[in-house]
Write a structure and sequence with these properties.
The structure is a single chain. By secondary structure, the chain is an alpha/beta fold. Helix content is 39%, strand content 9%. It has a five-stranded parallel β-sheet, with helices on one face. Helix 1 runs parallel beside helix 2 and helix 5 packs across helix 7.
């Protein structure tokens, strides 16, 4: 099954019209939103995000320390201003895992993934991810509807298809070290993303 995600950014000419066009062609989300001319959280981009929200598109932000404009802290602003945009924080903000995790904790519309170099770093110290995804449910400092932390993690990879089994094995090493239960592993390996896409999930 191929579910199309496309690349349209607010810096593109006629960006809002392009969003209408790709939605009409069947796109379900925007992928690899990375370096913009300005910070992701700049108000000049709000009309773009409003359009994304109204069209029901998922937004995948390529969040890594490759520049100040792509730091995960900006996603906290975007997610708060546009709570109906499902947001994927790619690479979990590597190396700023802590900030990305806290944004996912506080914003119901944000999930994270740890593909690429972030996966390699965390595989070397697999239990470390539990320090970032630390909560078991709501507390006095979190939203009342907060769930288990690892239900905020989804599986993703940017490796070639023939490396898929290796990536799954690396994920499993981390999940095992963090004591993640089977129910949450099913969410990580597709359940959560299916629900974001409105695809029925078998019990």
């Amino acid at each position: 099954v191929i579910i199309p995600f496309v690349r349209v950014t607010p810096d593109d000419e006629d960006a809002l019209a392009k969003l209408d066009e790709v939605k009409g062609q069947g796109a379900r989300g925007l992928a690899e939103l990375s370096s913009f001319r300005y910070d992701w959280s700049e108000e000049r981009y709000f009309p773009f995000y409003e359009k994304v929200q109204s069209l029901g598109l998922i937004a995948l932000f390529h969040s890594m320390a490759t520049g100040l404009r792509t730091l995960p802290v900006h996603l906290g602003v975007v997610a708060g201003q546009f709570p109906r945009i499902p947001i994927i924080c790619a690479h979990m903000g590597n190396p700023d895992f802590a900030t990305a995790a806290e944004i996912a904790r506080l914003r119901a519309n944000v999930v994270v993934e740890i593909s690429g170099s972030g996966l390699l770093r965390l595989q070397a110290i697999p239990a470390k991810l539990k320090e970032y995804l630390w909560w078991d449910g709501p507390n006095q400092h979190s939203p009342a509807n907060l769930g288990y932390a690892f239900d905020k993690l989804i599986f993703a990879t940017d490796e070639p298809a023939d490396h898929l089994n290796t990536c799954i094995s690396q994920y499993e090493t981390i999940l095992q070290a963090c004591g993640v239960p089977e129910k949450s592993r099913r969410n990580i390996y597709g359940g959560t993303l299916a629900r974001m896409l409105g695809i029925p999930v078998r019990a």
